Amino acid sequence: MKEFFPNIILDDYSYNLPKERIALYPLSDRSSSKLLVAVNNLLINNFLIKQSDNLNFQDSNLSVDHRLFKDIPSLIPENSLIFLNDTKVIPARLLFRKNTGGLVEIFCLDPVFPSTDPQISLQSEKKTIWNCLYSGRNIKEGSSFQLTTNDSETILNALVLKKDGKNVLVEFRWDNCNEKFINIINKIGNIPLPPYINRETEESDYNTYQTVYASSDGSVASPTAGLHFTDNIFEELSKKNISIQKLTLHIGLGTFSLIESKKIANHNMHSELLSVNLITLKSLLNFLQIKDNNKRLVAVGTTSIRTLETLYWLGVKIALGVKFNISFNDLLLNQYEPYYYQNTANLPSPSESINLLVDYMENQLKTNVLFGRTELFIVPGYDFKIVDTLITNFHLPGSTLILLVAAFIGKDNFYRIYNEALNNNYRFLSYGDSSILFR
Protein backbone atom coordinates (compact mmCIF):
# COMPACT_ATOMS: atom_id res chain seq x y z
CA MET A 1 0.00 0.00 0.00
CA LYS A 2 2.94 2.32 0.60
CA GLU A 3 3.37 2.88 -3.13
CA PHE A 4 0.03 4.75 -3.22
CA PHE A 5 1.19 7.32 -0.66
CA PRO A 6 1.73 10.79 -2.21
CA ASN A 7 5.31 11.75 -3.04
CA ILE A 8 5.71 14.78 -0.77
CA ILE A 9 8.85 16.85 -0.16
CA LEU A 10 8.74 18.26 3.36
CA ASP A 11 10.77 21.36 2.49
CA ASP A 12 7.91 22.44 0.22
CA TYR A 13 5.76 22.91 3.32
CA SER A 14 8.15 24.65 5.67
CA TYR A 15 8.31 28.17 7.04
CA ASN A 16 10.47 30.15 9.45
CA LEU A 17 8.99 30.46 12.93
CA PRO A 18 10.79 33.06 15.07
CA LYS A 19 11.27 31.85 18.63
CA GLU A 20 9.56 34.92 20.07
CA ARG A 21 6.32 34.03 18.27
CA ILE A 22 5.89 30.83 20.29
CA ALA A 23 3.33 31.49 23.03
CA LEU A 24 4.69 30.37 26.39
CA TYR A 25 1.51 31.32 28.27
CA PRO A 26 -2.14 31.58 27.27
CA LEU A 27 -4.18 34.77 27.37
CA SER A 28 -6.12 35.35 30.58
CA ASP A 29 -9.37 35.26 28.56
CA ARG A 30 -9.47 32.13 26.39
CA SER A 31 -11.84 33.64 23.86
CA SER A 32 -9.79 36.82 23.30
CA SER A 33 -7.19 35.04 21.19
CA LYS A 34 -6.88 36.16 17.59
CA LEU A 35 -8.80 34.23 14.95
CA LEU A 36 -7.68 34.13 11.33
CA VAL A 37 -10.64 33.44 9.04
CA ALA A 38 -9.77 31.89 5.66
CA VAL A 39 -12.53 31.24 3.14
CA ASN A 40 -12.55 29.62 -0.27
CA ASN A 41 -13.99 32.38 -2.47
CA LEU A 42 -16.41 29.93 -4.05
CA LEU A 43 -18.25 30.03 -0.71
CA ILE A 44 -18.49 33.80 -0.43
CA ASN A 45 -21.70 34.14 -2.39
CA ASN A 46 -23.12 31.16 -0.59
CA PHE A 47 -23.40 32.09 3.08
CA LEU A 48 -20.37 33.87 4.50
CA ILE A 49 -20.80 37.17 2.69
CA LYS A 50 -24.09 37.60 4.54
CA GLN A 51 -22.41 37.24 7.90
CA SER A 52 -18.93 38.61 7.30
CA ASP A 53 -19.06 41.17 4.52
CA ASN A 54 -15.75 42.79 5.48
CA LEU A 55 -13.52 39.88 4.48
CA ASN A 56 -10.27 41.06 2.92
CA PHE A 57 -9.99 39.60 -0.57
CA GLN A 58 -6.45 38.33 -1.07
CA ASP A 59 -6.64 36.81 -4.53
CA SER A 60 -8.97 34.92 -6.83
CA ASN A 61 -9.48 31.88 -4.62
CA LEU A 62 -8.96 32.84 -0.97
CA SER A 63 -10.26 35.54 1.34
CA VAL A 64 -8.79 36.29 4.75
CA ASP A 65 -10.10 38.23 7.72
CA HIS A 66 -8.77 38.86 11.23
CA ARG A 67 -11.13 38.49 14.17
CA LEU A 68 -11.19 37.37 17.79
CA PHE A 69 -12.12 33.83 18.71
CA LYS A 70 -15.19 35.06 20.59
CA ASP A 71 -16.60 36.05 17.16
CA ILE A 72 -16.72 32.46 15.99
CA PRO A 73 -20.48 31.95 16.58
CA SER A 74 -21.17 34.66 13.98
CA LEU A 75 -19.03 32.86 11.39
CA ILE A 76 -20.57 29.39 11.52
CA PRO A 77 -23.92 29.05 9.71
CA GLU A 78 -27.09 28.04 11.51
CA ASN A 79 -27.87 24.32 11.84
CA SER A 80 -24.23 23.34 11.42
CA LEU A 81 -22.55 20.53 13.36
CA ILE A 82 -19.38 20.87 15.46
CA PHE A 83 -17.23 17.99 16.71
CA LEU A 84 -15.01 18.35 19.78
CA ASN A 85 -12.37 16.03 21.19
CA ASP A 86 -13.23 15.65 24.89
CA THR A 87 -9.97 13.98 25.91
CA LYS A 88 -8.38 15.21 29.14
CA VAL A 89 -4.67 15.61 29.81
CA ILE A 90 -3.42 13.53 32.72
CA PRO A 91 -0.56 14.56 35.04
CA ALA A 92 1.65 11.92 33.45
CA ARG A 93 5.06 13.10 34.70
CA LEU A 94 5.97 11.40 37.99
CA LEU A 95 9.16 12.44 39.78
CA PHE A 96 10.68 9.73 42.00
CA ARG A 97 13.78 9.86 44.19
CA LYS A 98 16.11 6.85 44.20
CA ASN A 99 17.61 5.40 47.37
CA THR A 100 20.88 7.05 46.34
CA GLY A 101 19.17 10.44 46.31
CA GLY A 102 19.09 10.89 42.54
CA LEU A 103 15.91 11.90 40.74
CA VAL A 104 14.10 9.78 38.15
CA GLU A 105 11.19 11.02 36.07
CA ILE A 106 8.71 8.44 34.81
CA PHE A 107 6.49 9.72 31.99
CA CYS A 108 3.35 7.58 31.60
CA LEU A 109 2.51 7.15 27.91
CA ASP A 110 -0.14 4.46 27.52
CA PRO A 111 -1.45 1.60 29.66
CA VAL A 112 -0.96 -2.13 29.18
CA PHE A 113 -2.76 -3.59 32.23
CA PRO A 114 -5.55 -4.02 33.19
CA SER A 115 -6.60 -2.47 29.86
CA THR A 116 -5.15 -0.54 26.95
CA ASP A 117 -8.01 1.92 27.47
CA PRO A 118 -6.60 4.72 29.67
CA GLN A 119 -9.95 5.40 31.30
CA ILE A 120 -10.11 1.82 32.58
CA SER A 121 -6.49 1.60 33.72
CA LEU A 122 -6.66 5.00 35.41
CA GLN A 123 -9.48 3.63 37.56
CA SER A 124 -7.26 0.74 38.72
CA GLU A 125 -6.95 -0.07 42.39
CA LYS A 126 -3.66 -1.42 43.78
CA LYS A 127 -1.90 -2.17 40.44
CA THR A 128 -1.50 -0.99 36.84
CA ILE A 129 1.20 -1.37 34.15
CA TRP A 130 2.14 1.35 31.67
CA ASN A 131 4.52 1.99 28.81
CA CYS A 132 6.63 4.94 29.92
CA LEU A 133 9.63 7.08 29.16
CA TYR A 134 12.23 7.80 31.80
CA SER A 135 14.96 10.32 32.47
CA GLY A 136 17.64 9.66 35.05
CA ARG A 137 20.79 7.63 35.54
CA ASN A 138 21.48 3.95 36.12
CA ILE A 139 17.97 2.70 35.39
CA LYS A 140 17.72 -0.99 34.57
CA GLU A 141 15.23 -3.82 34.62
CA GLY A 142 14.33 -4.48 38.24
CA SER A 143 14.93 -0.89 39.39
CA SER A 144 12.28 0.27 41.85
CA PHE A 145 11.27 3.62 43.33
CA GLN A 146 8.80 5.01 45.84
CA LEU A 147 6.77 8.19 46.04
CA THR A 148 4.41 9.32 48.78
CA THR A 149 1.35 11.47 48.07
CA ASN A 150 1.22 14.95 49.56
CA ASP A 151 -1.38 13.88 52.12
CA SER A 152 0.89 10.95 53.14
CA GLU A 153 -2.03 8.55 52.72
CA THR A 154 -0.61 6.54 49.81
CA ILE A 155 2.83 5.19 48.87
CA LEU A 156 3.23 4.61 45.12
CA ASN A 157 5.79 1.97 44.12
CA ALA A 158 7.22 1.80 40.60
CA LEU A 159 9.04 -1.30 39.29
CA VAL A 160 10.80 -1.36 35.91
CA LEU A 161 9.77 -4.61 34.21
CA LYS A 162 11.44 -4.02 30.83
CA LYS A 163 13.82 -1.45 29.39
CA ASP A 164 14.53 -0.55 25.76
CA GLY A 165 16.56 2.63 25.45
CA LYS A 166 14.55 5.37 27.13
CA ASN A 167 11.37 3.30 26.92
CA VAL A 168 10.40 1.31 30.00
CA LEU A 169 7.51 -0.92 31.00
CA VAL A 170 6.59 0.05 34.56
CA GLU A 171 4.41 -1.69 37.11
CA PHE A 172 2.80 0.68 39.61
CA ARG A 173 1.51 -0.63 42.95
CA TRP A 174 0.13 1.19 45.98
CA ASP A 175 -1.02 0.21 49.43
CA ASN A 176 -4.20 2.28 49.79
CA CYS A 177 -7.07 0.26 48.33
CA ASN A 178 -9.34 3.31 48.56
CA GLU A 179 -7.27 5.20 45.97
CA LYS A 180 -7.55 4.87 42.21
CA PHE A 181 -4.48 5.45 40.04
CA ILE A 182 -5.93 8.65 38.54
CA ASN A 183 -6.44 10.08 42.03
CA ILE A 184 -2.86 9.28 42.98
CA ILE A 185 -1.26 10.90 39.94
CA ASN A 186 -3.58 13.89 40.31
CA LYS A 187 -1.93 14.43 43.70
CA ILE A 188 1.70 13.83 42.77
CA GLY A 189 2.02 14.12 38.99
CA ASN A 190 2.80 17.06 36.72
CA ILE A 191 0.96 18.11 33.57
CA PRO A 192 3.25 17.48 30.56
CA LEU A 193 3.64 20.70 28.59
CA PRO A 194 4.87 20.51 24.98
CA PRO A 195 8.67 20.54 24.56
CA TYR A 196 8.58 23.92 22.78
CA ILE A 197 7.03 25.57 25.86
CA ASN A 198 10.43 25.91 27.45
CA ARG A 199 9.50 26.38 31.10
CA GLU A 200 8.40 24.38 34.11
CA THR A 201 4.76 23.48 34.63
CA GLU A 202 2.96 26.02 36.81
CA GLU A 203 -0.18 25.68 38.89
CA SER A 204 -2.22 27.63 36.33
CA ASP A 205 -1.40 25.09 33.60
CA TYR A 206 -3.57 22.48 35.33
CA ASN A 207 -6.51 24.63 34.24
CA THR A 208 -5.36 26.50 31.15
CA TYR A 209 -3.93 23.43 29.37
CA GLN A 210 -7.34 21.71 29.54
CA THR A 211 -10.38 22.51 27.44
CA VAL A 212 -13.47 23.57 29.41
CA TYR A 213 -15.22 20.41 28.16
CA ALA A 214 -12.42 17.89 28.86
CA SER A 215 -13.87 14.78 30.49
CA SER A 216 -12.13 11.61 29.23
CA ASP A 217 -8.81 11.08 31.03
CA GLY A 218 -6.01 9.69 28.90
CA SER A 219 -3.97 12.23 26.88
CA VAL A 220 -0.44 13.48 27.39
CA ALA A 221 -1.11 16.52 25.20
CA SER A 222 -4.08 18.86 24.93
CA PRO A 223 -6.35 19.19 21.87
CA THR A 224 -5.27 22.81 21.75
CA ALA A 225 -7.72 24.11 19.13
CA GLY A 226 -10.38 23.65 21.79
CA LEU A 227 -8.61 25.75 24.43
CA HIS A 228 -10.25 28.92 23.08
CA PHE A 229 -13.84 27.81 23.71
CA THR A 230 -15.81 29.11 26.70
CA ASP A 231 -19.23 28.36 28.11
CA ASN A 232 -20.46 31.67 26.71
CA ILE A 233 -19.37 30.70 23.19
CA PHE A 234 -21.29 27.44 23.48
CA GLU A 235 -24.37 29.39 24.57
CA GLU A 236 -24.11 31.64 21.50
CA LEU A 237 -23.69 28.63 19.20
CA SER A 238 -26.78 27.03 20.72
CA LYS A 239 -28.86 30.10 19.85
CA LYS A 240 -28.13 29.37 16.17
CA ASN A 241 -29.18 25.73 16.52
CA ILE A 242 -25.59 24.64 15.97
CA SER A 243 -25.20 21.12 17.36
CA ILE A 244 -22.21 20.06 19.44
CA GLN A 245 -21.03 16.45 19.45
CA LYS A 246 -18.07 14.95 21.29
CA LEU A 247 -15.69 12.17 20.38
CA THR A 248 -12.48 11.00 22.00
CA LEU A 249 -8.99 10.61 20.63
CA HIS A 250 -6.31 10.25 23.29
CA ILE A 251 -3.28 12.23 22.15
CA GLY A 252 0.11 10.61 22.52
CA LEU A 253 3.61 12.04 22.64
CA GLY A 254 3.96 11.28 18.92
CA THR A 255 1.96 14.40 18.12
CA PHE A 256 5.14 16.41 18.83
CA SER A 257 7.40 14.21 16.70
CA LEU A 258 8.93 16.04 13.77
CA ILE A 259 9.28 14.33 10.41
CA GLU A 260 12.91 13.29 10.02
CA SER A 261 12.74 11.28 6.80
CA LYS A 262 13.22 13.20 3.55
CA LYS A 263 10.68 10.86 2.00
CA ILE A 264 7.42 11.52 3.84
CA ALA A 265 6.11 8.02 3.12
CA ASN A 266 8.86 6.61 5.36
CA HIS A 267 7.63 8.52 8.41
CA ASN A 268 6.00 6.19 10.92
CA MET A 269 2.76 7.84 11.98
CA HIS A 270 1.92 7.37 15.64
CA SER A 271 -1.10 5.26 16.54
CA GLU A 272 -3.73 6.79 18.84
CA LEU A 273 -6.75 5.37 20.61
CA LEU A 274 -10.19 6.67 19.60
CA SER A 275 -13.70 6.07 20.85
CA VAL A 276 -17.06 7.25 19.54
CA ASN A 277 -20.45 6.36 20.95
CA LEU A 278 -23.37 5.16 18.85
CA ILE A 279 -25.49 8.26 19.52
CA THR A 280 -22.71 10.48 18.17
CA LEU A 281 -22.32 8.31 15.07
CA LYS A 282 -26.06 8.47 14.41
CA SER A 283 -25.98 12.26 14.77
CA LEU A 284 -23.19 12.37 12.20
CA LEU A 285 -25.16 10.08 9.89
CA ASN A 286 -28.34 12.17 10.17
CA PHE A 287 -26.41 15.35 9.43
CA LEU A 288 -24.70 13.87 6.36
CA GLN A 289 -28.04 12.67 5.00
CA ILE A 290 -29.62 16.15 5.13
CA LYS A 291 -26.51 18.31 4.68
CA ASP A 292 -26.59 21.13 2.13
CA ASN A 293 -24.22 23.96 1.21
CA ASN A 294 -25.66 26.22 3.90
CA LYS A 295 -24.56 23.92 6.72
CA ARG A 296 -21.01 23.15 7.75
CA LEU A 297 -19.43 20.16 9.44
CA VAL A 298 -16.78 21.66 11.70
CA ALA A 299 -13.90 19.76 13.27
CA VAL A 300 -12.28 21.45 16.25
CA GLY A 301 -8.64 20.53 15.92
CA THR A 302 -6.53 18.09 13.97
CA THR A 303 -7.42 15.25 16.35
CA SER A 304 -11.14 15.67 15.65
CA ILE A 305 -10.65 15.77 11.89
CA ARG A 306 -8.42 12.68 11.95
CA THR A 307 -11.04 10.81 14.00
CA LEU A 308 -13.94 11.79 11.74
CA GLU A 309 -12.07 10.94 8.56
CA THR A 310 -10.98 7.63 10.13
CA LEU A 311 -14.63 6.74 10.71
CA TYR A 312 -15.29 7.10 6.99
CA TRP A 313 -12.45 4.73 6.07
CA LEU A 314 -13.52 2.18 8.67
CA GLY A 315 -16.89 2.16 6.93
CA VAL A 316 -15.09 1.65 3.61
CA LYS A 317 -13.26 -1.37 5.05
CA ILE A 318 -16.61 -2.84 6.11
CA ALA A 319 -17.98 -2.22 2.60
CA LEU A 320 -14.98 -4.11 1.20
CA GLY A 321 -15.61 -7.08 3.47
CA VAL A 322 -13.02 -6.53 6.20
CA LYS A 323 -14.10 -8.16 9.47
CA PHE A 324 -13.43 -6.45 12.79
CA ASN A 325 -13.40 -7.60 16.38
CA ILE A 326 -14.22 -5.26 19.24
CA SER A 327 -10.59 -5.05 20.41
CA PHE A 328 -8.70 -1.77 19.99
CA ASN A 329 -5.81 -3.28 18.09
CA ASP A 330 -8.00 -5.05 15.54
CA LEU A 331 -10.14 -2.05 14.57
CA LEU A 332 -7.24 -0.11 13.10
CA LEU A 333 -6.73 2.27 10.19
CA ASN A 334 -3.09 2.30 9.16
CA GLN A 335 -1.42 5.30 7.58
CA TYR A 336 -1.35 3.98 4.02
CA GLU A 337 -4.85 2.49 3.69
CA PRO A 338 -6.78 5.66 2.72
CA TYR A 339 -4.43 6.37 -0.19
CA TYR A 340 -4.81 2.80 -1.39
CA TYR A 341 -8.60 2.87 -1.07
CA GLN A 342 -8.81 6.26 -2.86
CA ASN A 343 -7.87 4.33 -5.99
CA THR A 344 -10.76 1.91 -5.51
CA ALA A 345 -13.74 2.36 -7.79
CA ASN A 346 -17.23 2.91 -6.37
CA LEU A 347 -16.31 4.05 -2.88
CA PRO A 348 -19.35 4.58 -0.65
CA SER A 349 -20.55 8.12 -0.04
CA PRO A 350 -19.88 9.61 3.42
CA SER A 351 -23.42 8.86 4.59
CA GLU A 352 -23.30 5.32 3.16
CA SER A 353 -20.00 4.63 4.90
CA ILE A 354 -21.14 5.92 8.30
CA ASN A 355 -24.41 4.00 7.92
CA LEU A 356 -22.39 0.80 7.39
CA LEU A 357 -20.43 1.57 10.55
CA VAL A 358 -23.61 2.18 12.57
CA ASP A 359 -25.11 -1.07 11.29
CA TYR A 360 -21.91 -2.96 12.09
CA MET A 361 -21.89 -1.62 15.66
CA GLU A 362 -25.52 -2.53 16.25
CA ASN A 363 -25.72 -5.91 14.53
CA GLN A 364 -22.18 -7.32 14.55
CA LEU A 365 -20.22 -5.80 17.42
CA LYS A 366 -23.41 -5.25 19.45
CA THR A 367 -21.87 -2.32 21.29
CA ASN A 368 -22.80 1.27 22.04
CA VAL A 369 -19.22 2.53 21.89
CA LEU A 370 -16.81 2.08 19.00
CA PHE A 371 -13.17 1.69 20.04
CA GLY A 372 -10.27 1.66 17.63
CA ARG A 373 -6.86 3.02 16.75
CA THR A 374 -5.87 5.33 13.94
CA GLU A 375 -2.60 6.08 12.20
CA LEU A 376 -4.28 8.35 9.66
CA PHE A 377 -1.55 10.52 8.10
CA ILE A 378 -3.19 13.36 6.19
CA VAL A 379 -0.92 14.96 3.59
CA PRO A 380 -1.52 16.92 0.37
CA GLY A 381 -3.25 14.55 -2.00
CA TYR A 382 -5.63 13.25 0.65
CA ASP A 383 -9.31 13.36 -0.35
CA PHE A 384 -11.39 14.70 2.57
CA LYS A 385 -14.69 12.86 2.95
CA ILE A 386 -16.42 14.21 6.07
CA VAL A 387 -15.12 17.60 7.22
CA ASP A 388 -15.43 20.88 5.33
CA THR A 389 -14.46 23.36 8.07
CA LEU A 390 -11.48 23.18 10.43
CA ILE A 391 -10.65 25.15 13.57
CA THR A 392 -6.96 24.83 14.35
CA ASN A 393 -3.99 26.63 15.90
CA PHE A 394 -0.77 27.44 14.04
CA HIS A 395 1.63 24.51 14.01
CA LEU A 396 5.32 23.72 14.20
CA PRO A 397 7.42 23.60 11.00
CA GLY A 398 8.33 20.04 10.06
CA SER A 399 5.34 18.51 11.84
CA THR A 400 2.66 16.20 10.47
CA LEU A 401 0.08 18.83 11.44
CA ILE A 402 1.49 21.32 8.94
CA LEU A 403 0.92 18.79 6.16
CA LEU A 404 -2.66 18.23 7.35
CA VAL A 405 -3.43 21.96 7.15
CA ALA A 406 -1.83 22.19 3.69
CA ALA A 407 -3.88 19.20 2.56
CA PHE A 408 -7.07 20.82 3.84
CA ILE A 409 -6.65 24.34 2.46
CA GLY A 410 -4.13 23.84 -0.37
CA LYS A 411 -0.37 24.42 -0.58
CA ASP A 412 -0.50 28.00 -1.86
CA ASN A 413 -3.25 28.94 0.58
CA PHE A 414 -1.29 27.37 3.43
CA TYR A 415 1.59 29.77 2.76
CA ARG A 416 -0.75 32.76 2.46
CA ILE A 417 -2.42 31.93 5.76
CA TYR A 418 0.81 31.44 7.68
CA ASN A 419 2.35 34.60 6.20
CA GLU A 420 -0.78 36.51 7.20
CA ALA A 421 -0.45 35.20 10.74
CA LEU A 422 3.25 36.06 10.95
CA ASN A 423 2.70 39.53 9.48
CA ASN A 424 -0.15 40.27 11.90
CA ASN A 425 1.58 39.28 15.13
CA TYR A 426 -0.28 36.06 15.77
CA ARG A 427 0.94 33.86 18.62
CA PHE A 428 1.89 30.32 17.55
CA LEU A 429 1.56 26.73 18.77
CA SER A 430 -0.35 25.26 21.72
CA TYR A 431 -0.99 28.40 23.77
CA GLY A 432 -1.19 30.59 20.68
CA ASP A 433 -3.93 32.01 18.47
CA SER A 434 -6.34 30.16 16.21
CA SER A 435 -7.80 29.95 12.72
CA ILE A 436 -10.99 28.77 11.09
CA LEU A 437 -10.57 27.37 7.58
CA PHE A 438 -13.52 26.96 5.19
CA ARG A 439 -12.87 24.81 2.13
Which labels suit this protein?
six-stranded antiparallel sheet, 12 helices, globular, Thrombin, subunit H, QueA-like, 26% helix, 439 residues, single chain, eleven-stranded mixed sheet
Structural commentary:
The protein is α/β, with parallel strands linked by helices and 439 residues long. The chain is 26% helix and 25% strand. It folds into two domains: 2-88 and 215-438, QueA-like (3-Layer(aba) Sandwich), CATH 3.40.1780.10; 92-190, Thrombin, subunit H (Beta Barrel). It has helices at 44-51, 72-75, 118-121, 181-188, 205-208, 231-239, 278-290, 302-319, 337-341, 350-365, 400-409, 411-423, and strands at residues 34-40, 56-57, 62-68, 81-85, 87-89, 93-97, 103-113, 127-135, 144-148, 155-164, 167-174, 216-219, 243-249, 272-277, 297-300, 332-333, 369-374, 389-393, 434-438. The strands form three sheets. The protein has an eleven-stranded mixed beta sheet with strand order 2-3-1-19-18-15-4-13-14-17-16. The chain has a six-stranded antiparallel beta sheet with strand order 6-7-8-11-10-9, with helices on one face. The protein has a two-stranded parallel sheet with strand order 5-12.
